[in-house]
Design goal:
It is a single chain. This protein is α/β, with parallel strands linked by helices. It has a single domain, classed as Rossmann fold (3-Layer(aba) Sandwich). The chain is built from five helices and five strands, in the order βααββαβαβα. Strands 3-2-1-4-5 form a five-stranded parallel β-sheet, sandwiched between helices.
Length: 160
């Protein structure tokens, strides 16, 4: 067994290739928007979500609602549910600042639509999409949205 090199740090903080949400209003005065790819965030943890997709989505929505009432209170949140997770929408009480969208077809298409609509309303708005899906990132980044992975969100929700 080799002895660890004491000059090498054990933990390396993540390095993001795009800006992360700051949580403060942008220059237009609008609140930052966090668009959550629920299927991707749920699927990032092997906790048995595949046995009950709607239950896993309800747990995510509950955590997001709690986050939105606390440290995320100054950020608008839109959560996109698709497929078998759509029935979980009843777990959240929508407000103007916390929305749940039941994607009628592709969740990725609904996310692109949400980002497009938000930028159409406020072109300078800070929008971050939470997903690890490279194809989706390639679709929303050219629109002007930043992206971050599910672990970023899990750390804010205390799901570490």
């Amino acid at each position: 067994m080799t002895t660890p090199d004491p000059t090498t740090p054990v933990f390396q903080p993540p390095v993001f290739d795009t800006a992360q949400p700051s949580g403060s209003p942008d220059s237009s005065g609008s609140r930052p928007l966090l668009v959550v790819d629920a299927a991707n965030v749920i699927g990032s943890r092997p906790d048995g979500w595949w046995k009950d997709r709607a239950g896993a989505a309800r747990r995510l929505l509950t955590s997001l609602a709690e986050y939105h009432q606390g440290p995320g209170a100054d950020t608008d949140i839109t959560v996109i549910l698709e497929g078998a997770a759509r029935p979980a929408a009843d777990a959240a009480t929508p407000t103007p600042n916390f929305q749940v969208v039941q994607a009628p077809r592709s969740g990725d298409d609904a996310i692109v639509e949400a980002v497009t609509a938000a930028f159409a309303e406020t072109p300078t708005r800070e929008i971050t999409v939470v997903t690890a899906d490279r194809g989706l990132r390639a679709r929303v980044e050219p629109l002007g949205a930043a992206t971050t992975g599910p672990n970023w969100l899990h750390s804010r929700l205390g799901d570490e």
